Amino acid sequence: MRPLDAEIGTASALVIDGTASSRQVLTAMLRECGVGDVQQATKPSDARRLLEHHTYDIVLCEFHFHGEALTGQELFDDLRQAGAIPLSTVTVMISSESVYGKVVDAAEAALDAYLIKPHTEDALRDKVLQARQRKRALKDVIDLVAAGRFDEAASLARARFETRGPAWLHAARIGAELYLRLGRPTDAQTMLEAVLQTGALPWARLGVARAQVEAGTVQKARRTLESLLGDCPGYADAYDIMGRVLLDQNEPRKALDAMRRSIELTPHSVTRLVKLGLLAFYYGDPAEASDALDKAVRLGINSRVFDLQGLVLLAALQHDRADRRGLALSVASMKRMVATAPYSPRLKRFGAIVGILKALVDRQLPDAAHMISTLLNEVRAADFDFEAACNLLMVLSRMDTQDELHLPDLTRNVRRLAARFAVSHTTTEMLRAALRGQAALDSAVQEEAQRVTGLAQQAVSHSLAGRPRDAVLALLEGAEQTINAKLMDLAAHTLDRHRAAIDDADSLALRVMGLETQFRSYGAQVRMARIDDARTMNAAARPG
Question: How far apart are the C-alpha atoms of 19 and 353, rounded to whole Å?
Answer without folding.
Answer: 44
